[in-house]
Specification:
Layout lengths: L4 H6 L4 H17 L5 E2 L9 H7 L4 E2 L6 H4 L7 E7 L2 H6 L1 H8 L8 E5 L9 H4 L5 H18 L6 E7 L8 H8 L3 E2 L1 H12 L22
Helix pairs in contact: 8-9
């Protein structure tokens, strides 16, 4: 309870908070045997190094760990759209993001979209407050549709989207349906590590070809 929004925005930890955090990390890694650790707020990136060094599993406190992996997969003219609660707040973390995960907010391959001027999301970044989900989703998708239709006219082509803000998770699936693009968020990043650790059902099964009915779809 001592780890307040204000404290995380400063990237600070009291001695009590740090002790409690380390105890929780030990419980997660040793007792629960988690395969990865993530967070529910971009401010938690301040603690990326501390948490990473305290456990023996992958740690990604923000989906912003992944844009550098995506860039080589996209065309030279394609950019990654990073959706955040408040552009200014993200820019204030520029140095920390660069040192902790190599995310360069000034890289021209990234387009940053803040939600601070979308109706219903004006207070999301600074206070964590937002309107009802239906209103937010309608306004959010309208803004995304508008931007993605206008940007190609000025030479901005988006190849993938990273939704940095955890509060926008309920809207990432509708965003995939709207755009048809890869949309990464905290959940898809977690699933990435889970899939890498999960046993493949077909591995080592000798009779797996017999599970196929032999039919081939015509193209």
């Amino acid at each position: 309870p001592d780890l307040t929004r204000y404290l995380t925005s400063l990237g600070k930890l009291t001695k009590v908070c740090e002790k409690a955090l380390r105890e929780v990390l030990q419980w997660m890694s040793e007792d629960q045997r988690v395969c990865a650790i993530t967070g529910d707020c971009s401010f938690m990136m301040h603690y990326q190094v501390l948490i990473r060094d305290a456990v023996n599993v992958p740690v990604f406190m923000s989906p912003l760990m992944f844009p550098r992996m995506l860039l080589p997969m996209l065309g030279e003219k394609e950019k990654i759209l990073v959706v955040t609660a408040d552009r200014k707040l993200l820019e204030e973390q520029k140095n920390m993001l660069m040192s902790h995960c190599g995310f360069d907010i000034l890289d021209l391959r990234y387009t940053i979209l803040g939600c601070e001027d979308i109706p219903g999301l004006e207070k999301l970044g600074k206070k964590g407050e937002f309107a009802d989900e239906a209103t937010v989703q309608m306004n959010f998708l309208n803004r995304m549709s508008q931007c993605l239709s206008q940007w190609p006219e000025v030479g901005t082509f988006i190849g993938a989207i990273v939704v940095e803000c955890i509060h926008l998770l309920p809207h990432t699936q509708p965003l995939r349906e709207l755009t048809g693009m890869p949309v990464l968020d905290a959940v898809t990043c977690a699933e990435y590590f889970i899939a890498a650790r999960k046993q493949n059902d077909r591995y080592g099964i000798k009779q797996w070809p017999y599970l196929w009915d032999g039919s081939v779809e015509e193209f």
